[in-house]
Structure formats: structure tokens, C-alpha cells
Design a protein that fits this description.
378 residues; Rossmann fold; 2 domains; eight-stranded mixed β-sheet; four-stranded antiparallel β-sheet; globular
């Protein structure tokens, strides 16, 4: 699906359109549409300990069984409330965290339990842009030292020298080569995020995981960074997994969108289908919360604001059955007792819900709502 065109005033990137590489400065692009990343049954449980002997008394089920693929050249957006496991998922697929269960395949190679030595060559192809540009850059190092660190760690000598390549990368992300000897405290938040992007691009990665790349930035700067990521994808053939809680950002940059709730994916489909015909009640509630600045347009859309009851349950003790049933206005007895699988209910539209919107029920015949029956949803 073609992404929206940039507005005439949107930012343009400078510099060469050639990706940096070890010798020639070019990177072999993966074939468009082929699975680049495949995740199956991915889990991450953080143990909870107590007492002098650190006896485990429970676990935080941060990620509890994810299945999805990321195709070469596309952008997969991941949205959900705070605490749903989005950032943990990003750190798992980049192997910054060790998975508790499941598997991660990158270009057909299982990287689930590779050690530091085994992951070293993979780091060239999988990079991450961190959420906070203030804490992800070492304040004692210059910009040149920060962006050149991947070359030194991987033992790569770019053509023309490291300094020349770093200055070219700074131009690519919209900074000046003269910034090479400056320190992070001399830059604004948006400029620091550009430095982080330049560092992530240094080794010509095939997959970039961006964890809330614009959430710490001013709104005016957010648009510039989002447009920069879009332009870099077209120029360098990148594949993105972008994690965010801002639905407007996700809508602008994504080809497909995964909606997460309490450690699980509840809906996965292309951007147009998600915004036009959301099938999961949680997705519908999220979309209803998007502010519409024009009251007349809001009335014309006829969107009903959905206020979810209660708080998000604890990931230490998630509800039985469907994890959203404690806050869902459509919940029935089967939602409380049986966990819905993530299955395709339309072409390319996967949903985990017994009573989806805009589609037949997965469990027909069970229509007695829990709130009408007076049954506790806990």
C-alpha cells in the first residue's frame, strides 16, 4: 500500500541515496515482499522474587505468545496502551532481551538463543532506535564517536575512512557534517533523535526497530522525524517495526498494524482495513479516542466515544479467557472461559475475538452478556 505523500512543507533529507556498507557503501536490499522476520509463540516472563533467598513467587507476563511476520520493505506498526508489552517485544526481536519461549527467525535463521558471539554478525542487519534521545546517547562522547561506534565494534572500515562516512550519515539524517565534534548536550531533542537514527543506519541494517521514536519530541519536530524515517526507507530499502501509542503517527508510516493488549496481539491487518473496519472492540475503543479537531467533521463521521471501564489488569495475574473481557461491553461467558485465537476473519485481517465487530461471531449462540447476567468479570 502506498503511504501518504508528504506535504509541500515537509522536511527533505540531504546527502547520497546510497546506503553505507563495508567497502562499496552499498547494501544488498532484501527482495520486496518476502518474510524478513518471523516470530512464533514469543514469550517473555520476568520473574518476581521475594525474601532473602530471592524465592520466585510469580512472574510478569510482559509478552505472552506473539505470532507475526514482517516482510522485506514494509513497515509494521505496533500500538497499544502503556504496559501492553510493545517495548519488550521490540527488545526481544533485536535480542536485547532473552526470550522465555517461542522462536525468532531472521532471514530463515533462528536467532532465538544466539549468544553474544553468534549475534555479533546479526547486529549489522538488525538495529534499534530508542525512545529517549536524552538517555540513549553518551553525554561524554562526541557525535563522531557515537555514530562511529558500530564501525569499531564490528571491525568495519568504510571506504574513505570512518570520519568521512560518519559525516555523510549526518547529512543523510539532516544534520551538518560540522556537528562531528560536538556533544549531545549541544543539540535539541529532535537533533539528538537524528543522531540516534544515524547510529542505527551506520552498518546498513535490513531491519530497524523504532521504539516510540517521536514520543519524547515536540509535535512540530515529530512530523519532521516521521517524514525522515519515511524518506530513508524509500532511499535505503529499509524494513521497519515502529512501536508507538500515537495512532496518527502509526497511520502515517505503517503498511500493516498490530494492536497489542496485555502481552498479546488482538488484531493484525493492513492500515486501511484497521481504520475503516476495525474488528476487535479494543481497537474500536482506541480509534474512538483519537481527537478530531473539527467538531463538524466529528459529527459527520458519527463516531461514538467509547469509555472503557476499569483499569488494565495486572500482567502478573491476567484474566482467564480473553484478556480484554473485563473491560469489554460485548463480553459473554465464553469470553471469560475460553481464550480466542488470532485467526483471519477477512483477507489479511487477523483478529482474536469471540464477538468481533464487522464480522460473524467466532462463537455463535453465546449471546448472554456478562453485564446483563450479573456475572463478575474478574
Amino acid at each position: 500500500m502506498t503511504k501518504p505523500e508528504k506535504s509541500p512543507g515537509s522536511e527533505q533529507t540531504a546527502g547520497s541515496t546510497t546506503a553505507p556498507g563495508e567497502s562499496t557503501g552499498t547494501a544488498a536490499e532484501p527482495r520486496q515482499g518476502e518474510p524478513l522476520l518471523k516470530v512464533s509463540g514469543l514469550k517473555k516472563h520476568f520473574p518476581v522474587t521475594k525474601g532473602l533467598f530471592k524465592r520466585q513467587v510469580g512472574a510478569v507476563l510482559a509478552v505472552d505468545g506473539l505470532d507475526f511476520e514482517v516482510r522485506a520493505g514494509e513497515t509494521l506498526g505496533v500500538v497499544g496502551e502503556s504496559g501492553c508489552g510493545k517495548s519488550t517485544m521490540g527488545r526481544l526481536i533485536t535480542r536485547l532481551l532473552e526470550p522465555t519461549g517461542g522462536s525468532i527467525e531472521f532471514e530463515g535463521t533462528d536467532i532465538t538463543h544466539l549468544g553474544v558471539r553468534g549475534m555479533r554478525p546479526m547486529r549489522r542487519d538488525v538495529q534499534m532506535i530508542f525512545q529517549d534521545p536524552y538517555s540513549s546517547l553518551n553525554p561524554r562522547h562526541t557525535v563522531g564517536a557515537i555514530v562511529s561506534a558500530p564501525f569499531k565494534l564490528q571491525g568495519v572500515q568504510p571506504e574513505g575512512g570512518v570520519k568521512k562516512e560518519v559525516q555523510r550519515l549526518l547529512e543523510v539524517v539532516g544534520l551538518s557534517p560540522e556537528h562531528y565534534n560536538r556533544y549531545p548536550h549541544e543539540f535539541s531533542g529532535g537533533q539528538r533523535q537524528r543522531i540516534g537514527i544515524a547510529r542505527a543506519l551506520a552498518l546498513s541494517p535490513k531491519l530497524v526497530v523504532a521504539d516510540e521514536p517521536v514520543s519524547a519530541l515536540d509535535v512540530s519536530i515529530q512530523a519532521q522525524v516521521v517524514n525522515l524515517l519515511d524518506d530513508l526507507q524509500e532511499e535505503l530499502g529499509l524494513t521497519y517495526v515502529i512501536i508507538a501509542h500515537d495512532l496518527s503517527v502509526i497511520r502515517h508510516v505503517s503498511d500493516r498494524i498490530a494492536v497489542m493488549y496485555l502481552g498479546k496481539i488482538v488484531e493484525l491487518t493492513d492500515r486501511q482495513s484497521l481504520y475503516d473496519t476495525p474488528m476487535h472492540p479494543y481497537t474500536r475503543a482506541l480509534l474512538s479516542a483519537v481527537p478530531v479537531p473539527d467538531p463538524r467533521r466529528k459529527a459527520a463521521d458519527g463516531r461514538e466515544r467509547i469509555l472503557l471501564q476499569g483499569d488494565v489488569p495486572s500482567p502478573m495475574n491476567p484474566p482467564s479467557g480473553c484478556r480484554f473481557h473485563t473491560r469489554c461491553w460485548k463480553a459473554t461467558e465464553v469470553c471469560r472461559t475460553k481464550e480466542p485465537p488470532l485467526v483471519p476473519l477477512a483477507a489479511g485481517h487477523n483478529v482474536a475475538c469471540h464477538h468481533p465487530e464487522n464480522a460473524p461471531d467466532q462463537e455463535p449462540g453465546d449471546t448472554k452478556l456478562l453485564r446483563e447476567a450479573g456475572v463478575s468479570k474478574s
